[in-house]
Design goal:
alpha+beta
Length: about 575
Amino acid sequence: MTLPAYATLTASVDRTTISENDTVELTLRSDKQQFFNEPDLTPLKEHFSILSTQQRSQFQSVNGKSQAWTDWIVTIKPKRRGYVIIPPITLDGERSQPITLDVKKGNANVNNGNVDVFMESRLDKEEVFVQGQALLTVQIFHSVPLYSDREISELEIADAIVKPVGKPRSFDRIINGKRFSVIELQYAIFPQKSGEITIPQQTFTATKVFRQQPFDRFFNSTLGKPVQVNTAPINLMVLAAPSDYPKHQPWLPASDITLKEKWSGEREQLQVGDSITRTITITADGMSAAQLPPLPSLNIPGLKTYPDQTKTENQATANGIVGRRQESVALVPTKPGTYNLPAVKYTWFDTAQQRTRTAKLPARTLKVVAAPGSQTTTEQPASINPATSTSTQINDNNMAQSQLPNDHSSPDTIDQPQATGWMWLSLLFALLWICTLILWWFKAKVAVRNIDSALTVNHKNDTESSAFKALKNACQQQDYPTLCQNFIAWSQLHLKAPQAATLVNCLHLWHDEKLKQLFNRLQQSRYGKSHLAEDPSQLYDQLLLQIKQLRSNPPQQEGNILPSLYPQPQ
């Protein structure tokens, strides 16, 4: 079978949804080096203006395999709004695939191009359900070169979790015949309570490059002018969860949620003792992975389960964040029969249709037969009648007694040395297992004691803002020991209580029960059993949100009195 002609020439763009004044980078790639040939760009001229073209050829060799290719980067600008198709491009009979662009109407309030640097920000919606996603887009325009000291203020919103979406993107836009370079950043905002919230302004600072005089380079002179621009605050209405949403289900507002499963083998060809792994992936469009609750565990007699570690990830898309949660469990049947696995259901709220929906995986059946050579000669169902089982056991015992030798010795005592060896080996493994449990318990106890009772921090030169930034980074990196240290350092500075040298002291000064519970739950998730532990990502997000609220409304201190560690003498 031969590949189609266009298989060796591919086309891609940096984004598919743009404004009518934006430019797009079209990349055409040939899977071989081209020195004398160029693609025919004539079909582009009907619906696009071609602004520039660059050619790059590359060659690499990895593990003895050589690969060469040539790229053409074409900067184009659409001539009209709507859905515009980039037609196939030809090169020596090879053709690229077409690409559809969604060209939207430009912002009527955009700066008229009279200034060199300005900013804009916009939300993808005016109202959002609580814990749902609102997508904020921030764009920085500059028509003059800027030095590398460019910086934008950090976006912090009270009562909301903010997550950056992907990496900053760059493109060009023509405004009143003037070309601007655009830096675009996106944030996914998840409000945690209903009501109106305000997206605060963001500040961009940089230094504009001025043209140097002919002799400036001899005196190493750097000319520049500082510039600072801001966005305007934006109000966002946050709606409460509908009253008809099921109360016993976790609140999951999303654009779409799907369930997919994968099996490591055939479910109808299992033998006793075989292992088969079931992997279920939950994908939520418009939600972070930390918001997705775990799946219900299986508890079926005769079927042992061994859960694997849960995998979570957030993927950046044009519509914001797509959260994924993947759970795998190995199933090992211990006796033959038919096992019915219940259906898996995930109830969620469709924010687009504004109605409750359910993602579902149907019930599955496992058929298990006895292993070859085992004592079970016929397939027995997983659920056995107790009366039949007792009768069969009595008959088997009578048969076994009739087959005993005349000296009434048991088969288990025929090979006494081998049985004794196995007994000592089992005893040795049991002792090692007990020692492992003791060491694990002691290590966890010491770690908890070190964190809660003897953790002291000395950050005399830190400011409150830098200490809070370090605390926030520790939360985002999910580093619990560093989080505890930074929380103590920040609490000492914020509450002006240098004597609060332990985590217990700091929590006492804050007088906040929810804060204590979040630290306890994080501690349990670290040292508790894996199948009972909570999702750490969600706990860290909740803790950071609670700390932000306490930072805005610190408790009223009464002389920074700490609980006494030892009773006072009478």
